[in-house]
Amino acid sequence: MVLPIVDDTPAVAPQQGRRSSYALRVSLLSACQLDCRYCRPGSVTTPSTQAAWLSPGEHARLAPLLLSRGVRKVRFTGGEPTLRKDLVDVVAAWASAGARELALTTNGLRLPSSLPALVAAGLRAVTVHLDTLQEARVAFVMGPGASVGEARQAMRAARDAGLRVKWNCVVQRGVNDDELGAMLDAAADDGVELRFIEQMNTGSAAGYVKETFVSGHDVVAGVGRLSSSTPRSLTRRHASDPAALWQVRRRNDTGARDVVFGLIASDTEPFCDACDRLRLSAEGRVRGCLYEPGGLPLGAALRGGANDAALGALLDAALDGKRSHHPLAPVLRQPFSMADVGG
User: Fold this and answer.
1) Which of 1, 49, 80, 155 is deepest in the core (most CB within 10 A)?
2) Interior/surface letters 211-245, b for 16+ CB within 10 angstroms, e for the rest
3) Distances (CA, A) of 296 to 138, 176, 177, 314, 321
């Protein structure tokens, strides 16, 4: 099932209320070297310029305000965040402000060379995006320049550097849904946790999503058909985690092993009631939902000379007004691509 993007406002979804803690996704830019078929081809905005990006100093100014309001986890995203030459300085700015759970989502192409500096700056976890294990297929799936070998090397390097490592794969019918078993085995071999993700109907690549959408239910069923046991549902690590955990037994030439994988089924099984996500765009707009249009102009206020009290008031408005803009919620949505908002 692919849910529609609506362009009217028949009602307003209820506010979700303040959370005791938040997970913040910090988009650092919208540019990326790759061209994943559900993402950049559907982009509906012009990528922001470097002059518009929040600088490390501006991150250092905003970080204490966000941390004091309950932000406990910070994940740096893009586009592709490793394209920022000052990425290490941004990570260090958040670490210096007191953030301890700092993570990065990346395609991995530029990660290994920057790992020592990122770890020294305070990075503690990495998620690598890879949608296929077949080198002959990867350019079609993720665009020219994508590399299975380099992505897996990045995961191993991050693991060897002592970071927590996850692997994200967006499952697509007729594109990579024949690789579920092979990916589970590769993740187990590499000592990383694989997470299968439903495509999100953001409205910008609706035709492609409609053609290739695979529900979370069908992903689990597919894993079961390819394995020696029926997948068993596990408890989420935290109620607000987007990934539901599953365990399945896999067999190979050396025997059997139990493999845990995550499933993010946000279109067919939304978790809005438990959502603790906040988002900060590369230009400094803060929003409480991936699907929320616009957001509040925190960065513009900072550059306009706002003091900490005024910036804090904007943040409080965002937190107090946090509500779901998911396609199931009857609120205004506008088409966007994942690259536009940082995934």
Assistant:
1) 155
2) ebbbbbebbbebbbebbeeebeeeeeeeebbbbbb
3) 37, 38, 38, 7, 10
Q: How many helices (H) and strands (E) does the chain have?
A: 11, 12
Lowest mean pLDDT among 48-52, 103-107, 136-140, 194-198: 48-52
Q: 65 near 308, Cβ under 8 Å?
A: yes
Instruction: Say whether pLDDT at 40 is over 70.
Output: no
Alpha helices in the chain (DSSP H): 56-67, 87-96, 111-121, 135-142, 148-160, 180-190, 206-212, 216-225, 298-303, 308-320, 338-341
Residue whose C-alpha is closest to residue 194's, from 219, 213, 173, 229: 219
Q: pLDDT tens across 159-169, in order? A: 999 999 999 99
How many CA atoms does the CB half-sphere of 141 hold within 13 Å? Answer: 24
Q: Token digits for 157?
A: 């390097």
Q: What's the whole-number mean pLDDT along residues 43-69?
A: 89
Fold observed for domain 22-341: TIM Barrel (3.20.20)
Angle in degrees, 0-180, between the axes of helices 148-160 and 111-121, rounded to the nearest 10: 30
Domain boundaries, the chain: 22-341
DSSP assignment of 70-87 equals: TEEEEEEESS-GGG-TTH
Q: Is the peptide bond before 191 cis (omega within 30 degrees of 0)?
A: no
Closest residue by Cα to residue 203 from 290, 73, 132: 290
Closest CA to 24 of 295, 327, 301: 295
